[in-house]
Amino acid sequence: MATDTVLKAEGLTKDFRGFRAVDGVDLSVLRGTVHALIGPNGAGKTTCFNLLTKFLSPSAGRITYKGQDITGMKPAAVARLGLVRSFQISAVFGEMSVNDNIRIALQRRRGHSYDFWRSQRILAELNQEAAELADSVGLSSFLPTPAKELSYGRKRALELATTLALDPEMLLLDEPMAGMGHEDVERTTELIRKIAASRTILMVEHNLSVVATLSNTITVLARGKVLAQGDYKTVSGDPRVVEAYIGS
Ligand code: ADP
């Protein structure tokens, strides 16, 4: 194989009633890397993320995942291929325990009928797997806790656990640190580093020190276009990037 590109966008473009929010973006995410999408407000990051996760359809361009054209596919179909977007926090069921939230995500992955889960042996197996996943995101002491009682940072950790329950090959994270205090940011950074050891990650993130710590590759967007691409040192030393941030 000449290339180990997992997710690729070519000429990705999105128009909103004549306004071009994303303008001919080319992007290649390499296997096993953490790739960050950054840029000043209004640069087109969210739109680009929604295009890549198939929550929006592009006006032009092509998206491939492991060589397969996914441009016209629905989010659920690409998730089945292993490309999964982290759930929105609202997808965590507040009244349910941490254990049950993760277990339901595991059941969804296995895709069996409801009756199947009444088997005690299967239930025990699922609870064991849920406990391991909770442990991997630092929630082992919160298994019986209703999700709504978790701190904001721990809710985001639960959201990650339910995403990991689907066993994605590639994860797309939308501002994983948004709204977090210092301690939660540190914990989540470590968690993403751990996840990145075995999976490919693309994230939109505002916290530049997190981006510097975690990312192998960074794509900087400004006014819908790719302004710079490379490692943190390269892009942060690019005068056009500095200007785009100062000018925003
Ligand atoms: P970022 O995430 O980098 O802040 P966005 O992708 O949210 O940028 O937005 C890029 C540009 O597209 C902004 O000017 C925004 O106002 C515009 N935009 C985003 N979504 C829509 C929409 N649904 N309709 C019209 N304009 C939109």
Automatic annotation (TrEMBL):
Instruction: Give Gene Ontology CC terms.
Output: plasma membrane
- InterPro entries noted in UniProt: AAA+_ATPase, ABC_AA/LPS_Transport, ABC_transporter-like_ATP-bd, BCA_ABC_TP_C, P-loop_NTPase
Keyword Transport recorded? yes
SUPFAM superfamilies listed in its UniProt record: P-loop containing nucleoside triphosphate hydrolases
Q: Which GO terms describe its molecular function?
A: ATP binding; ATP hydrolysis activity
Q: Identify one Pfam family in the record.
A: BCA_ABC_TP_C
Recite the UniProt keywords alphabetically: ATP-binding, Nucleotide-binding, Transport
**Residues in domain ABC transporter?**
7-248
Q: Which PROSITE patterns match?
A: ABC_TRANSPORTER_2 (PS50893)
Q: What protein does this entry describe?
A: ABC transporter ATP-binding protein
Which species is this UniProt entry from? Labrys okinawensis
